[in-house]
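Record 1 of the preview.
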Amino acid sequence: MNRHISVRSTAFAVATAISTAFAVPAFAQDVPAGYPADYADLIAKAKKEGTVSIYTSTDAAQSQKLQDGFTKKYGIKIAYNDLGTNGAYNQVISEAAAGQTTADLVWSSAMDLQMTLVQDGYASEYASPEAANLPVWANYKNTLFATTVEPIGVIYNTKALPEDKLPKTYADMITFLKENKSTLQGKVATFDPEKSGSGFLHHSNDARNRKDFWDLAKAMGDDGAKIYSSSGGMKETVVSGENVIAINIIGSYALAWVKESPNLGVHFATDYTPAFSRLALITKDAPHANAAKLFVDFMLSAEGQSLLAEGGLPSVREDVTAGLNVKTLNERVGGGLKPIAVDEGILEYMDQMKRVQFLNDWKAALGR
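->
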């Protein structure tokens, strides 16, 4: 009798050992190479949470491959809320004030607004295992991560404006607007910095980095420039011929648009092409904090970055071969790529007095 029990016990122990041996790799195989050994615990907790809520300004179509890849890999649902730059910022503040934080992650192209959320205590720190693979300028104290690098450029109507007539440099653009005032009158478009978070970032970044920015603004004003709240709105007017050229638009969008619109061209200055990034932060009281960390890591990984690049959002990493990465993008725009660093500098015009002064100077330059 004892012998039978012993045999059964041994068989049970062996079966348990085999079962355990196969169970452990089920978690281990989800852990990317080079990640901490206990990362499997984060994955398990994130899966238990089951969902991650994202407030964003990125069109779902552009991030769909990223979303699908994440859900397929981890089985975690994504509540994707495209609220726009200003909408995402305001919603986070409102929810925090009410003690009802819903967003786990804020992913926005308004770099200055994102940095403001960090400085005002709405973000949490997270040392992502992928941080080491980012450029130094792309990580702010493990609270704010650049996930893309997107050029700011020009779109133009190819039927109204031949490519060889386009200005080569930033300074040339000012001269171009002045010398072609009669033909460009009422046919120049640009962002409205008062209504668009992205527009304010683009223009104020130029003001920080170019002494001749206000010369450009005045030249646009003299040409009767019209202002818009979105790149998409400007695109439609340039395609139709209502406008000949649109300045300081989102170049990553434009690179995709020109493939679909034969009379639309995209252009970048060879000496100075600023580039913004869509920044990701995890909210301070994220209800699904583990899922948020997992999503950030996936976004920054070579796999996630490839999926973003395939969706038309150039990768901030150099080792991604899908679409454009930070290195090949620089080649595409002519060698003058100037990524906006993720640091306190982007807050210069977030000071209320400076912001008001900037907008007043802008209106004066455009003759508003």
